[in-house]
Amino acid sequence: MNLAPLSAPLLVDTPSALKDMAELLSREPRLAVDTEANSLHAFQERVCLIQFSTPQADYLVDPLALVDLTYLAPLFSDQHIEIIFHAAEYDVLGLQRDFDFSFSHLFDTMLAARVLGYKQVGLASLLSDKFGLEVDKHNQKADWGARPLSPSMIDYARLDTHYLIALRDILENELHDKNRWELANEDFQRNCFVNTNNKDRPVRAAWERIDGRQDLTHRQQTILRELCLGRERLAARLDRPLFKVVDDRVLLKIATAEPRSLDQLASAGLSERQLQRFGKTLLESIERGLTAPLVHATEMERTPDAVLNRLQRLKAWRKKKAEEMGVESDVILPRVYMQALAEQNPRNSQTFEKVLTGSPWRIENFGPELMNVLGIKSTVA
Predict the structure, then answer these.
(1) Which CATH number describes the domain made up of 305-374?
(2) Looking at the domain that runs over 206-291, which CATH code has it been given?
(3) pLDDT for 43-74, tens place per residue?
(4) What's the CA angle centered on 327, arms 323 and 333, to 5 degrees?
């Protein structure tokens, strides 16, 4: 495909420029959007750049230079404007978290590719496949909170949205050709509400999320808890992600060894620089852990055997169905639906359809098979 040369993207970093851009974009039926965040470079991740593309222009909005982004809110919540993302969940979560934006009409090019059965669904792979583009991804892990943005970062950011509208149209045609448009569209709209999926699940403390902590004694787990708290204070003060202060595996080794001196601490795998900067704080955390009341892991509700049995049957069914359709298993039955079916155990077609109320396509196309898996007798009029 012959592609026209790209004009320079428009940087939006003043309230007046943001207002003007928002007014222009409000007239568009489709907007390609992406975000860049600084999760690899800061203690608290934040959205550092928002990219918009229309068929006419590319825009780079700088949230770090703008106090108020409310001009953008109506664009995202307008059901008449389709917002096109690639891998929408991460962007939606970030925009909800940082700016309280809500969404009502999405298209996700990565999800579309997954529903179609593509093996390589990264944006770079799809742009190469559809447009013959080779995208340089070395800025993927760049510090997007740094200013000024380098020319290569600007170019990278703009390419993440510039071709999304054209890619979206190609994928929609393929979805219609395979009779999977309704399925994909249902899942696009479910992604408008990704923040609500795990609301009622208990949150584990940081030390409980470290692999291997179950092999420690209660005293060592208590030390690990104090080490995690100490690391968090250091990371907040330095504005660095936790893993760039001390890695989880090193904390686990420290808790296991219970060192009492810098020399003993060094043997756990800390670098000389880490010893100099963090050694005192870590030793103080160990001392607190040695005398603090013993910790106990968060009580997680045990899944009943009947639910586990239904889950196994549903997983086996969706794996077989996925092989038939040439897609990944979660495309057939996303975890949110599979878990709900297993836990709620609907006993008739009405309650079954209520569980899958957000996916009429799955009810129509998979309903009889799923009800058979669950042992639900279909009612015949």
Answers:
(1) 1.10.150
(2) 1.10.150.80
(3) 999 999 999 999 999 999 999 999 999 999 99
(4) 90
